[in-house]
Every structure is written in structure tokens, then in C-alpha cells.
Amino acid sequence: MSEEQTIRDCVERYYEALFTSNANLVHEVFHEKAMIVGYLPDGLHQMTREEFADFVASQQPSPEDTGSEKRLEILSCDVAGHTAGVRLRESYLGMVFVDTFGMLKFDGRWTIYNKLFHLES
């Protein structure tokens, strides 16, 4: 499997974590020191991996259980050695986000090291 496909698989697992409200999967795809940062209408939000996992798990019933729209579009994936930049668009909790992931190949597997998010609509 190519590096790009392995990265895409990680991004798809990330979205599966959100869609199923699975904190364990959040821990799998994010580096332990990852930060999740972006703006919502009420201002800047910053979360650690733990805080983000707790937020994802708190979405009950899950988007999957409520029959929410499932939308993940990988807009770009640029690989440079053991680093990668990925831009994606996703629907989550009735909103559409454009995310930019900084990813690292760490201990032989790709992880999301940081997530910058933008609320598109």
C-alpha cells in the first residue's frame, strides 16, 4: 500500500471516530501530543487529544445513530518523507468543516499531529 493510501486510511478512520462517537478511535488516529484548533462563531477553540476524544464521545446519540449525512472529501494530500499535509471537507453535527491536518509517520504509522479547523457552513 502506498504512503498516500495509508494516510487516506488514517483520515477515513478519523472520520469514522467522529461519525460513531468513538473516543478510542480518536486516540488511535491522533498523536498523543496533538492539538485541535480552530474558530467557531463564539471564537477560538483549542483542545488536546484527550479533550477532543471526550467531546467526540459525548455526542450521544452518535451521528451514525441519528442517521446524519456522512460526508468526507479529501481535497489534497501532500507527502514529504515522514510528514504530510492533508486538507479535507467533512460534515459533522449539522455543520461543514474544512480541516487541515499536519501528519507524522511516528513509530511506523501515520498519525494526525495537529488539526486546524474552519467552519464552512
Salient structural properties:
alpha+beta, 121 residues
SSE diagram, text form:
Blueprint: H1 3-20, H2 23-29, E1 30-40, E2 43-48, H3 49-58, E3 72-80, E4 83-92, E5 95-106, E6 109-119
Parallel strand pairs: 1-6
Antiparallel strand pairs: 1-2, 3-4, 4-5, 5-6
Helix pairs in contact: 1-2, 2-3
Describe the structure.
This protein is an alpha+beta fold. The protein has one domain (3-119): Nuclear Transport Factor 2, Chain: A (Roll), CATH 3.10.450. It is built from three helices and six strands, in the order H-H-E-E-H-E-E-E-E. It has helices at residues 3-20, 23-29, 49-58, and strands spanning 30-40, 43-48, 72-80, 83-92, 95-106, 109-119. It has a six-stranded mixed beta sheet with strand order 2-1-6-5-4-3. Helix 1 runs antiparallel to helix 2 (23-29). The longest helix is centred in the N-terminal third of the chain and has 18 residues, at 3-20. The chain is globular, with a radius of gyration of 14 Å. The termini are far apart. The relative contact order is 0.22. The model has no long low-confidence stretch (mean pLDDT 96).
Strand arrangement, major sheet:
2-1-6-5-4-3
Arithmetic mean of pLDDT:
96
The largest sheet is: 6 strands, mixed
What is the level 1 CATH name?
Answer: Alpha Beta
Task: Please state the structural category.
Answer: alpha+beta
- 3D shape: globular
At CATH level 2, the architecture is: Roll
Q: What's the helical proportion of residues?
A: 25-40%
Short description:
The chain is of the alpha+beta class and 121 residues long.
